[in-house]
Amino acid sequence: MSAPATQSAGTLLEVSGISVSFDGFKAINNLSFSIGPAEMRAIIGPNGAGKTTFMDIVTGKTKPDEGKVLWGDLSRNLIGMNEARIARAGIGRKFQRPTVFEDQTVFENLLMAVKNDRNPLAVLFFKPKFKDLAKVEELAAEIGLADQLSRKSGELSHGQKQWLEIGMLLAQDPKLLLVDEPAAGMTLGEREHTTDILKEAAKTRAVVVVEHDMEFVRRLDCKVTVLHEGSVLAEGSLDHVTQNQDVIDVYLGR
Amino acid sequence: MDMFKKTPSLPIFIAVLVIFTLAVTFLSEAYGAGAISTSFVKTLGKTLCLALVAIAMDLVWGYTGILSLGHFAFFGLGGYMIGMWLMYARTKLIVVESMASAALPPTPSEISDAIGTQIFGVVGSSDFPLIWTFAHSFWAQIALVVLVPGILALIFGWLAFRSRVTGVYLSILTQAMTLALSLYLFQNDSGLRGNNGLSGLQNLPGADAISQDYISVWFFWASSLALLLTYLLATFLVSGKFGSVIRGIRDDEARVRFLGYSVEGFKLFVFTLTGVIAAIGGALYYPQAGIINPAEIAPIASIYLAVWVAIGGRGRIYGAVIGAAFVSLVSTYFTGGQAPDINLGFYTIKWVDWWLVLLGLSFVLVTLFAPKGIGGLFDLISHRMSPDRHGLPLGPDKGSLREEEAEK
Description:
Organism (chain B): Celeribacter neptunius
CATH topology of chain A: Rossmann fold
Keywords (chain B): Cell membrane, Membrane, Transmembrane, Transmembrane helix
Order of helices and strands of chain B: HHHHHHHEHHHHEHHEEHHH
Largest interface: A-B, 43 and 31 residues
Structural class of chain B: mainly alpha
GO cellular component, one term (chain B): plasma membrane
Number of strands of chain B: 4
Helix content of chain B: 55-70%
Low-confidence stretches of chain A: 1-8
Strand order of the largest sheet of chain A: 6-7-8-3-9-10
Distance between the termini of chain B: 42 Å
Number of strands of chain A: 10
Oligomer: heterodimer
Strand order of the largest sheet of chain B: 1-2
Number of domains of chain A: 1
Radius of gyration of chain A: 18 Å
Order of helices and strands of chain A: EEEHEEHEHHHHEHEHEEHH
Largest sheet of chain B: 2 strands, antiparallel
Largest sheet of chain A: 6 strands, mixed
Number of helices of chain A: 10
CATH superfamily of chain A: P-loop containing nucleotide triphosphate hydrolases
Shape of chain B: globular
CATH architecture of chain A: 3-Layer(aba) Sandwich
Main location (chain B): membrane
GO molecular function (chain B): branched-chain amino acid transmembrane transporter activity
Number of helices of chain B: 16
Distance between the termini of chain A: 24 Å
Strand content of chain A: 15-25%
Shape of chain A: globular
Strand content of chain B: under 5%
Helix content of chain A: 25-40%
Mean pLDDT of chain A: 87
């Protein structure tokens, strides 16, 4: 296996020995995984390999039966914290299906995501400052929605919604982005743009991308982790894992 | 202000309310032509209070997506809290007056016993229960109008939201709360006179010389002012980022969590705040109604509240006001015996009996065919169409069109 992550500047997220089962089915089986502070990582694997469950556990949606999820310099255990606290700690998540607030404008969606005090009273008396507006404008330009700020996001196309959600993710200014199939339903041009956005983000923070599309993964040009039946099957560069016989047997060969 | 810019309906509402208030004042028996009877002024004043609690319902249901079927419990509690002071203070004046002619001046404990006998005689008691401790003090009871329902809402909401009870289960839970409260109050030893409730609330202590003609208009003004302030507060709440977040909770609560907002905290805030608003509405309503009893907070009352908001159009504040005013006034018309019976030859439709059927039917029809309610009519006038988008997105190459739109 190529350079272990623990030898880099430090570990941002370390998942160790987690297992979870639903009605007897082991979705995650003694999974260990770690990622550094400014790193891009792609997770691939067949359906049911536990990719989405892994994200659910890290973001606090699902409680694992055992194991630890350690976060940041202080190695705080995230298990037991609720979703909102984990998000505030610096983990952002993009869902497979684009989930934006369709009844609200692009501007409102982005402003809601921009990093600020999340306490109800602070939100109630919140007045957007210049830096908040500038941040919204900047992100809107980055995701190609600068002209659409006043449109209801329900009117956007599928690809635009995907970008809006990526924009909201970046607005949160997370240290770790968990991105589930960002390129689903996008044209080739849109995919390339998405790759650029993610690569740019990975320069300053950790990005974990779950993706089925091998071409997209190749373009990300990063370390790949292959999951199978809830644990890591192989890890390394894309070329390295695609030549792995186990990976070919369970995933690529089919 | 930002609020006015984002809500073009706000100045219109203020103007309509001011004109309405002035019109009623100058048509009242006390201050004008006398075209509106005192009892109808009271009905209108009560209607404003109902519009006020409907705004609270709209905030909690229409904006935050919590279908609370228990907000009338807070409304009733507010009424009970102010009713305790009204009853105590007025009974005390009467008792002191009647004892003044006695040979020996009465001791404080004699006065207290006499008041107790007067108030609790109907339930076979003469002792003041513990909950009447502050009934002698106007300001203490005013504080309790806010505190008692507020704390109940806070505790109930904390327990419910913390365990992530949502949807229909939460609605059932709130129904159980209001049912339990009304059953408790029905008991004679609840300390609030059982099913007799509190009565004579229209008589303000020390104001016997003032005619109800004037008092009714004063309460009408107070209700109007309270409605205005509630409307402004509600507009302020929903027009900024707070409004964004609560509408987000309504539409996709899990997504809001992953943005880092504490959904439970926001729900609890809105639930408690609207509970307090409802209580203030009740504290203004029951002195105009004159009587409050446990039947007022029966589960059905809170369901009516949801029906008003649905018919008026939820998710817009003026919709709640229109729904409450329209339905409760029409209801007064039909159940008050003013509506003429319809003789079909073989059967006579008596509106007193059939009004509820009509209301239920219109609720079903509005839900099915006009989900935006009466408020949706204003969208037709202002040509504000919301996109009617069904079918699947066509995917990247067809841009933002969906199946059915592309076929056109």
